[in-house]
Design a protein that fits this description.
Layout: H1 15-33, H2 40-66, H3 72-95, H4 101-123, H5 132-150, E1 154-157, E2 160-162, H6 164-200
Antiparallel strand pairs: 1-2
């Protein structure tokens, strides 16, 4: 029997996986908060929920590696929880008119494409790890969504007001650039590795 504290025990129910599951349960909370056009308080609460969810996305992976609790269930649920949160937030922001629909469609289609590529790659014994472009995309995208959720103008000090919505859109346009670049890079690497694998197996001359 394991003598490790309950939050570090092998198996499914430990702290890293619990954080992942909590992030998944936060998805319907975002839907409720962003239903119809949210009030200023609901907007701030939605922003807080999203930021906490993104922080747990970093924390659960770090703890799983530190405590050697990496598992197949965690490896599946962690990116799923992240994608559910981001996709749901984008769809709700489009519904209330705070985010252009084409941006949400482009980013969601990119995520579906890369997920499919990785699935095929894994089945063929190929590895497509996250690249620096993808990491930049995630950083700008998460920051942009935080600002878009905050939405309302904020006075930092007398005479200086920041438009959270405008700042979020600018950051999201940058994220879109990294989205396209990272998708092209993933596709290039996939076809490069696939061609090398086929040559190795003698499928191509």
């Amino acid at each position: 029997m394991s003598t490790a504290p309950f939050y570090r025990r092998p198996g499914f129910w430990n702290l890293p996986n619990a954080l992942t599951v909590a992030r998944m349960f936060a998805v319907p909370v975002m839907v409720v908060l962003l239903w119809d056009e949210p009030s200023q308080l609901e907007s701030y609460l939605a922003c807080a929920v999203f930021v906490i969810a993104m922080l747990t996305d970093i924390l659960d992976g770090y703890l799983a590696r530190k405590w050697n609790l990496v598992s197949l269930a965690g490896a599946f649920l962690d990116p799923l929880a992240d994608k559910l949160m981001v996709a749901t937030t984008m769809v709700m922001l489009v519904a209330i008119g705070w985010l252009p629909a084409w941006i949400a469609a482009l980013i969601i289609c990119r995520e579906l494409t890369i997920t499919a590529l990785r699935t095929v790659a894994l089945s063929e014994g190929l590895s497509l790890p996250a690249d620096s472009l993808g990491k930049f995309k995630t950083a700008f995208q998460s920051t942009a969504l935080g600002y878009l959720l905050w939405h309302y103008d904020t006075t930092l000090f007398e005479g200086f007001t920041v438009s959270a919505s405008s700042a979020g859109l600018i950051l999201m346009y940058i994220a879109v650039g990294f989205t396209v670049l990272s998708a092209v890079n993933y596709l290039r690497n996939f076809f490069k590795h696939a061609a090398a694998k086929e040559r190795e197996l003698g499928i191509r001359p």
